[in-house]
Amino acid sequence: MVGHYGRNKTLKQYFERAARVYRESQFLQRMEHLKNINPEAAQYITDAGIERWARAYSPRKRYNIMSTNIAEAMNNAIKECKELPITGVIDYIREVLQSWFHDRRTAALKLSTQLTTAADVAIGVKDERARHMRIYPITFYTFLVKDGDLDGNVDLTAKTCTCKEFDVDQLPCAHALACIRLRGFSFVDYCSPYYSSAFLVAAYSGEIHPVGQPSEWLVPEDIASKIVHPPVGRRGPGRPKKNRTPSFGEEVTQRRCTTCHRVGHNSHTCTYPKSSRPSSGMGSTSEIGEASGSHVNM
What we know:
Elements: H1 2-5, H2 9-20, H3 24-37, H4 39-47, H5 70-77, H6 86-109, H7 117-130, E1 134-137, E2 142-146, E3 152-155, E4 160-161, H8 165-169, H9 174-183, H10 197-203, H11 221-224, H12 285-292
Antiparallel strand pairs: 1-2, 2-3, 3-4
């Protein structure tokens, strides 16, 4: 969006706020601000599918994660080895995973709290806010919590709150923490087990080992007897492709020549005759219409 509609700090700020809020009412309010700043940008991100990037409309539990998918993250982590032979790429990936598992398992084993460091810090910040809230019990497990803003209706049995933060993150919000403190419960019991240090240790309990030297491998006879032939066909013309394949729904920005305004090349490689190029920075009516996708009726 920033690439399409400029590096407007206000535009970026409202987009990030709209993406991260939990309540639908707050989302609609921020989208209205976004429309007032740039209607085209607001329409662009709406057409992309609100449920794909907005927390308030996510159909699944997000656990406070706002990032690209795992394929994009892994693709970025191994970009340095893409031009190596396939055996080199596999060994590079093995080395990266081996390092990740060792370092993160070591850090997880050093934790002295029941929750991970990030979750523990988040709870601490929320608990500080919870101390200043007024609580009005409805039943033993349901409450109305006044926080001076939109308030929250908490149900500790269902682990929900009308602020949606408790529901989406699976981590108690400030409203829920105020109620948990009132009843004398343990806040850890209301956190998803995925935030626990025990789950973090279990996630990195696996061990990644080197494959060793090929001369020392114990290869089964049925595998060793197979003959692998080179691929059938010839390599295509031109240089091998290095750029990644765009993700689903990702729009690719085409290069546009600043001289003739056509796409697919730049001014240094422009091959169109000089007579067809604009003389003062602007092309002819037909060229401008072709470049911008518009049509001019005479």
